[in-house]
Amino acid sequence: MFAFLKKLGPGLLFAGAAIGVSHLVQSTRAGADYGYGFLWALLLIHAVKYPFFQFAPRYTTATGESLIAGYKRLGKGVLIIYFLLTMATMFTIQAAVTIVTAGLASHLFGITNNLIVWSIVLLLISVIFLYRGRYSLLDKLMKIIIVVLTVTSIIAVIAASFKTQTSFNFLPEIPKGTLEVGFLIAFLGWMPAPLDVAVWQSLWTQAKQKELGSTFSTKQSIFDFNIGYIGTIITGIIFMSLGALMLFNSGVNLSAKASVFAKQLIELYTSNLGTTIGWIVGIAAFTTMFSTTITALDASPRAMAKTTSLLKGKPIKNNYVVWLVLLAIGTIIILTFFTSSMGAMIKIATVVSFLTAPFYAIANLWLVSSKHMPKKWQPSLGMKIWSLFGIAFLLGFSIWYIILL
After folding, report:
1. Dist. CA 122–CA 287, nearest whole Å
2. Rounded distance, CA 238 to CA 52, Å?
3. Quick one: which of 206, 285, 293, 340 has its CA closest to 27?
4. How far apart are the first and last CA of the chain?
5. Is the pLDDT of residue 213 over 70?
6. How large is the average pLDDT for residues 195-217?
7. Which residue from 350, 361, 351 is spatially nearest to 402, judged by alpha carbons?
8. Which percentage of the chain shows pLDDT scores above 90?
9. DSSP assignment string, 78-129
């Protein structure tokens, strides 16, 4: 299995970035609150977002350039909108993944319960890690950690299924109240990941293509992405099952405080697999979230550096480092004000991500259907119809949510 994983590239990086808050927090909470009532939403949003994520490796390998460069080809206005949307979301996204990582670190390692201190330490380590260019080491470790987390989670779900006395109804749960609709939108926003991660995917694909050359073809890149995407679906169902089997109708509510939530999450494993396995899973969950923290801290500045250079028309000295430091400082400022409520911060980040998703969906479909894309790799009629349905879905749910506000 590890030999197979070694051959995977950007698709696994996508899975590593996606398997974080959306799975550990949102999927577990969905299962705890609604059983399998939101399984339809998990499967549907993966289907809805699939074309727009897949267009990233498709476009990049077919043209040799990133989606960001493609957005500029569509018009400078499109690139400016991307810049503004990224500015509006990157700080809350980074804060959300960092606070969950800090909560796990606090519960696992003790030392201090101050999540601001933990967040500063984690961000500082991440900045040094990225500045020295050592992310590749964590990338290799992440492949092992994802396998460990997935396998132990499957075992935990099987063990929990034998212990539970609860009967489940797999009929779709349709939210009615504002709070329920708000949670659904938040759940959809980051499942499996925000749509702007497609831009990250294109940058990873571009780097992989430069490394491997023509051997990393468009066909290979799509296959590579599909492996990672299927992995996010399976992992999402696993965490939803864990929440449903262990917490649905139990009277126990998952906490909005990061440190308490981390304790509750690890206890789901220890109660089924024993203390030792529980701590192993805890370390795996922390490493996965820490990897996601570093990935987000690297990808957003890299994308913004590329964007600002294209807008200016020439390379900008130390551009990446400036954005890296700016994101770290901005994240700490946000956490200082929102650290007491992980749930509120995650809801803000996920809802904003959902409301901005239509832009990325429209831009990505427009780009791969344009004259800038080789005709051989332009999406088929069926894929275009699929994409139009996805855009209608994202716009419709966004309007529904805004009307209910």
Report:
1. 11
2. 24
3. 285
4. 47
5. no
6. 80
7. 351
8. 30
9. HHHHHHHHHHHHHHHHHHHHHHHHHHHHHHHH-S---HHHHHHHHHHHHHHH
Residues 252 and 60: their CA atoms lie apart, in Å, by: 46
**How buried is residue 164: exposed, middle or buried, by Cβ count under 10 Å (0-12/13-18/19+)?**
middle
Burial category of 328 from C-beta neighbours within 10 Å (exposed 0-12, middle 13-18, buried 19 and up): buried
Report which of 279, 233, 219, 200 is spatially closest to residue 46, judged by C-alpha positions: 233
Could you tell me the two tokens for 288? 């996965």
* 96 in Cβ contact with 296 (< 8 Å): no
Side-chain-facing half-sphere of 254: CA atoms under 13 Å: 27
> Which amino acid, one-letter code, is at 214?
S
Range of the domain at 228: 2-404
Contact 294, 185 (CB under 8 A): no
DSSP per-residue letters across 217-286: -HHHHHHHHHHHHHHHHHHHHHHHHHHHHHHTTSS----SSHHHHHHHHHHHHHHHH-HHHHHHHHHHHH
| Contact present, 192 and 238 (Cβ < 8 Å) | no
Query: What is the rounded distance in angstroms from the CA atom of residue 228 to the CA atom of residue 18?
Result: 9
- Rounded to whole angstroms, how far apart are CA atoms 367 and 245? 43
Rounded to the nearest 10°, the torsion over CA 105, 109, 114, 115 is 0
pLDDT for 16:
75
**DSSP classification of residue 315:** -
Closest by alpha carbon to 397, among 33, 49, 18, 11?
49
Name the one residue in this structure whose structure tokens are 């923290």.
293
Rg of the chain over Cα atoms, rounded to whole angstroms, equals 20
Question: Rounded mean pLDDT of the chain?
Answer: 83
Q: For position 300, which CATH number holds?
A: 1.20.1740.10
If DSSP codes are grouped into helix, strand and coil, which group holds residue 396?
helix
The pTM for the full model equals: 0.86
Looking at the 3D structure of the chain, how many domains does it have? 1
